[in-house]
């Protein structure tokens, strides 16, 4: 699934979604590898847990790539729609949906200017998007805008403190322009980004605590979810779930801006 490629090494996986440099086959090659298959499975499990119930809900994937997440969401009963700035990826997503018989809709569009009315979706997802856009605050505001009251945003991003991030930073220092532009964030930085957009952070979790080798992925897979519930340090992939909430004002009208509640940090139990 495209959503879960954020920890993948190399230009072929990451740039295809954002600049159209590499054809969508890059995703297929990644998923065919041992490392990609295990990483995909772990990240998918985490995103499913944070997303919650999908059946009957309207769902938007911002930066949908080749449509793997859309097909996954549709198979679980969601009314799925995707946007991507790459024409090649939009066509790849449509072709994937046709091949798998999934009823999804895909449009050309950017996260800074989503082509949807306010409050259109119960669930919005954006994975490995904020780490590459010029104005992440604008993208968060747009995603919050299209969320219905009570709706949920789930983001998945590149963790700042991991072996994967260190490897990518070195590539940037050595002249890789793509990784020079990438922004790796901590869990707290991601939470502040969403809270500044008026969302209430509900859950933070990590995944992919092993180095980028297939044998390490096989060894760590059984304990990776356990680690993800307890610490963000070392996670190549960080996921955050945040809700759009509204409250009644004392003077009798409803606020149009969501009000954030205290968030559940890694290692904390829900109230």
What does the secondary structure layout of this molecule look like, with pairings?
Elements (H helix, E strand, L loop, with lengths): L10 H8 L6 H8 L1 H18 L6 E5 L5 H8 L3 E6 L2 H14 L4 E4 L12 E7 L8 H11 E12 L4 H11 L3 H5 L5 H10 L3 E8 L6 H7 L3 H5 L8 E7 L28
Parallel strand pairs: 1-2, 1-4, 2-3, 4-5
Antiparallel strand pairs: 5-7, 6-7
Helix pairs in contact: 2-3, 3-10
Keywords:
271 residues; alpha/beta; Rossmann fold; 7-stranded mixed beta sheet; 39% helix; 18% strand; disordered N terminus
How would you explain this protein's 3D organization?
- The chain is of the alpha/beta class and 271 residues long.
- It has a single domain (2-243), classed as 3-Layer(aba) Sandwich (Rossmann fold), CATH 3.40.50.150.
- Helix content is 39%, strand content 18%.
- The chain is built from eleven helices and seven strands.
- The chain has helices spanning 11-18, 25-32, 34-51, 68-75, 87-100, 136-146, 163-173, 177-181, 187-196, 214-220, 224-228; strands at residues 58-62, 79-84, 105-108, 121-127, 147-158, 200-207, 237-243.
- It has a seven-stranded mixed β-sheet with strand order 3-2-1-4-5-7-6, with helices on both faces.
- β1, α4 (68-75) and β2 (79-84) form a beta-alpha-beta unit.
- The chain is globular and about 45 Å long.
- Mean pLDDT is 81; it is low at 1-22 and 248-271.
């Amino acid at each position: 699934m495209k959503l879960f490629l954020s920890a993948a090494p190399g230009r072929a996986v990451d740039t295809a979604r954002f600049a159209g440099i590499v054809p969508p086959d890059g995703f297929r090659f990644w998923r065919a590898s041992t490392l990609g298959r295990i990483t995909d499975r772990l990240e998918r499990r985490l995103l499913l847990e944070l997303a919650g119930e999908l059946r009957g809900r309207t769902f938007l994937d911002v930066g949908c790539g080749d449509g793997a997440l859309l097909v996954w969401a549709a198979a679980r009963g969601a009314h799925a729609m995707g946007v991507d700035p790459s024409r090649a990826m939009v066509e790849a997503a449509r072709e994937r949906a046709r091949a798998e018989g999934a009823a999804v809709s895909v449009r050309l569009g950017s996260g800074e200017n989503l082509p949807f009315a306010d409050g259109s979706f119960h669930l919005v997802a954006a994975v490995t998007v904020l780490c590459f856009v010029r104005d992440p605050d604008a993208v968060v505001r747009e995603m919050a805008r299209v969320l219905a009251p009570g709706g949920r945003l789930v983001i998945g991003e590149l963790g700042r403190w991991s072996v994967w991030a260190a490897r990518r930073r070195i590539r940037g220092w050595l002249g890789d322009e793509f990784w020079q532009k990438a922004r790796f964030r901590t869990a707290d930085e991601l939470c502040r980004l969403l809270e500044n957009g008026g969302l209430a952070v509900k859950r933070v979790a990590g995944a992919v605590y092993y180095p980028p080798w297939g044998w390490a992925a096989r060894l760590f897979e059984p304990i990776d979810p356990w680690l993800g519930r307890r610490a963000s340090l070392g996670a190549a992939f960080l996921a955050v779930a945040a809700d759009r909430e509204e409250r009644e004002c004392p003077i009798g009208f409803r606020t149009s801006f969501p009000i954030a509640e205290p968030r559940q940090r890694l290692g904390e139990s829900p109230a």
